[in-house]
Amino acid sequence: MRRPIIAGNWKMNNTASEGVTLVKAIAPLVTDANCDVVVCVPAIDIPAVSEALKGTNIKLGAENVHFAEKGAYTGEISAAMLLEYGVEYVIIGHSERRQYFAETDETVNKRTLTALKAGLTPIVCIGESLEERETGKTEEVLATQIKDGLKDIEDITKIVIAYEPVWAIGTGKTATAEQANETIAFIRKTVGEMFCPKCADALRIQYGGSMNAGNCKELMAMPEIDGGLIGDASLKAPDFAAIVNFDK
Ligand code: 13P
After folding, report:
1. Domains in the chain: how many in total?
2. 94 counts as catalytic
3. How far is it, in rounded angstroms, from Cα 108 to Cα 112?
4. Interatomic CA distance for residues 90 and 25, integer angstroms
5. pTM for the full model?
6. Residue nearest to atom 7 of ligand 1 (CA)
7. Angle, CA 8 vertex, CA 212 and CA 113 arms, to 5°
8. Domain that holds residue 127
9. What is the pLDDT of residues 89-108, one digit of tens each?
10. Do the Cβ atoms of 247 and 219 come closer than 8 Å?
11. Ligand 1 atom closest to Cα of 162?
12. Which of 55, 73, 192, 198 has the fewest beta carbons closer than 10 A?
C-alpha cells in the first residue's frame, strides 16, 4: 500500500512570522493524520518554520533547489543549505517555474538527481496546459516530461510525482476525479515502462490543482491518487487540515 502524502505549496505567500503562525495553527489539527503531511515554504521562511515544526508530525519542504552543490549561482539555494534546517522534501519543476523562470525538463532532471543524491525527496511536478489537453496532446506531453525529467534516476520510488494540470492551478477548475485518476494511471504506466512495473506500483503520485476541503474526499477515493499538492487551500489552517484528514 502506498502511504498518502498531502503537501502544501505556499508559493510566494507568508513571511516567516506569518508562516510560523500558520504552522502553529495547523499542527494541533493534524496530529492524527494517516498520511505524510508536508509544508513546502519560501526559502527565507525555512529557519523559523523549521523551529516551529519541532515536535510535530509535519515535515518541511522547500519550493526549489539548485542543481549545483555550490558555487557562483547568485540568488540560488543548494541542497546542503536546505538540509541544515531539516528540510526533507523539495518541489521541483512546478509549472510556475517552467512558465516564468525558464525551467525545462533538463533542469528538472538535474535538480532531481542533485536532490536525491543529497537525501532530499523530490516532489516532481508534471502537467499539461489547457491547449495541450484540448488538442489531445496530454499523454504525449506527460510522456516527454517523464522521459526527459526523470532519466537516470536509480530508485524511482524515492521521488513523489505531482500531476498538476496547468489549467487547474489557481483557477478553481479541478480535473474531475475520473480525469485525474485516468491521467495518473497513464503516468504510472509510463513510469513502469521506463523503470519497472513494480517500482511504478510503489511510486506515490499526487494530484494538484484547486484541490480543497470540498473535493479532496472524492479525489482521494480514487485508486491511483496518492495525495495532493495544495496551493491556495494550504494557506488556511482549517482548510489544509481538512484535506490532511480526508479519511476521517
Ligand atoms: P492551487 O491549489 O492553488 O490550485 O495550486 C495548486 C498548485 O500549484 C500546487 O503546487
Report:
1. 1
2. yes
3. 6
4. 22
5. 0.98
6. 231
7. 130
8. 5-244
9. 999 999 999 999 999 999 99
10. no
11. 10
12. 55
